[in-house]
Model the fold of this input.
Amino acid sequence: MKPYLANFRFYEELNDFLGRDHYKQTIAYRFGGQPAIKDPIEVLGVPHSEVDLILVNNASVGFDYKLKDGDRVAVYPVFESLDISPVQRLRPKPLRNTAFIVDVNLGKLARGLRMLGFDAAYGNRLKDREIVDIATREKRIVLTRDRKLLFRKSITHGFWVRAVDADAQVREVLTRLDLYSQVKPLQRCMDCNGRIEPVAREQVWSRLEPLTRRYYSEFFRCSSCHKIYWSGSHVAHMTGVIRELLVR
Done:
C-alpha cells in the first residue's frame, strides 16, 4: 500500500500532550488508507475529549473526516472564551451547563470547586469505568490527572489537570474553561455536593448547640446530606480563601 503523508499542527494547551520533538512543531504523519482523522490525533498523543476544532486545508471538519494524502491539519483545544460558531464544533454543545466528575486523586479540587458553587461529583473509590459511565449519563466534564482516561471513546468533554497544588488546580480549571463568570460561592455542600438552601431555624433547632442557638438566627441546610450551615467565623475564613482563588 502506498504510504501517504499529512502534516499536523496542534495549538495551545494541546501541545502538553506531545513529545518534546513535536512541541509547537508541524508533525509529518505517514499513513495508509483513509483513516478517520480522530485516529491519528490520538495516535500522536492528544485525547479527542480535549479537541474542539479541526481545520483541514483551512476548512473545519468532524472526527469522521477521512484523512487524505497532502492534507494540512490544524487541531485546536476547547474554545470556551471565543465564539467559533461559524465553524464546525466537535461537541454536541458547549460547556456552559457546567457539571464535573472529578477523578479519585483530585478530592481537594472537588471541594474547591464546590466551595465556588460548581456541581462537582466525586467519590474516592470510583473506578475508571464508573467515572466514564457517570460522565456519559449525566453529561459531566471529566477532570483528571490520568491522561489515558481522556481517550475513552464515550467521553466527550474532559480536561487533563496539569497543576499539582490544589489551589493552583482550581485556578487552572477556572481559567482554562473560562468559568469565572459562573462562580457562585457557598451554594454547594463541600462534603457531598448537594445544594445549600435556607431553612427555618425551627426545623433544625434540636440539632443546634446552645451557643449556636444563642448567637445565630439564620440557617442553611444541605439538600442531600442535611448538614446545617450558618454564618460563623469559618465563613469569613472561606471568603478570604475564595477571594484569593479568584485573583487572576
In short: The radius of gyration is 22 Å.
